[in-house]
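so im writing up the methods section and need the Rrf2 family transcriptional regulator record in one place, dumping it here so i stop losing it
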Amino acid sequence: MTVSSRFAVASHVLAMLSVHTGEALSSEKLACSAGVNPVIVRGISSMLRRAGLVQSRQGVTGLSLARAASEVSLLDVYRAVQPPERLIALHEHPSQECSVGRHIQATLGEVCSEAQAALEARLARTSLAELAEELHKRADQDLQPAS
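--- predicted struct ---
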């Protein structure tokens, strides 16, 4: 079991749009950068469009940001592409005949709820603009001559 990579791909797409402000980028170009199939980018882009994070203009191929990058939190991105269920799903039918089975959901559920809240709080503190700024810093380091 793994957590979906939709959030990572959506963040990548939005970071590309943020870095290339004013340009409409095609799903092919975005997919090439993310290293995924353009069909995946189109599906994620549809979710981002429904959430009001990206837009496309008639007669122009490609996507652009619908809002300023500083106004988009990573929590907005997460909520746009992740189903509303918990990040960590609990099994549905533990045995009620067993003392562990009777109490595992409530006990583990509290821990998982706290973890979910911590994740969402951290994502809420980071804007797309901050993500793009960090990407610029790291890219600039790539260009520094080796000592």
